[in-house]
């Protein structure tokens, strides 16, 4: 067996591993809903900016209007999602990924 065939068989074995499938499931269960929620939030901002100009232009205080607040909240939500993902990955993904990695490294040495 060549080194390339050995590498391919290791990858196929990992792909079939139940714990690897669990790792993928955990990632998807977090990433897909969060992505959908963020896109919906972003599109809401765009739609309101285009079709609810009166609402978005409403002054909240001084020269600060709803559109500016929503725009700034886009940045806040982006940083919050990055922080939340880092916490989720640290607790739910990284330990399982480390187990799988150590198992694979033990087999390839």
Automatic annotation (TrEMBL):
The chain crosses the membrane at residues 30-52, 64-86. The keyword Transmembrane applies. Pfam families: DUF485 (PF04341). Keywords: Membrane, Transmembrane, Transmembrane helix. InterPro entries: DUF485. This is DUF485 domain-containing protein. It comes from Streptosporangium fragile.
């Amino acid at each position: 067996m060549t080194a390339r065939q050995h590498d391919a068989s290791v990858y196929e074995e990992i792909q079939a591993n139940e714990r690897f499938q669990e790792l993928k499931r955990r990632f998807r269960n977090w990433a897909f809903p969060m992505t959908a929620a963020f896109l919906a939030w972003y599109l809401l901002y765009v739609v309101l900016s285009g079709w609810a100009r009166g609402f978005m232009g409403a002054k909240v205080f001084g020269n600060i209007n709803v559109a500016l607040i929503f725009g700034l909240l886009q940045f806040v939500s982006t940083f919050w999602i990055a922080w939340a993902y880092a916490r989720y990955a640290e607790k739910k993904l990284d330990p399982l990924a480390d187990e799988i990695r150590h198992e694979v490294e033990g087999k390839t040495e």
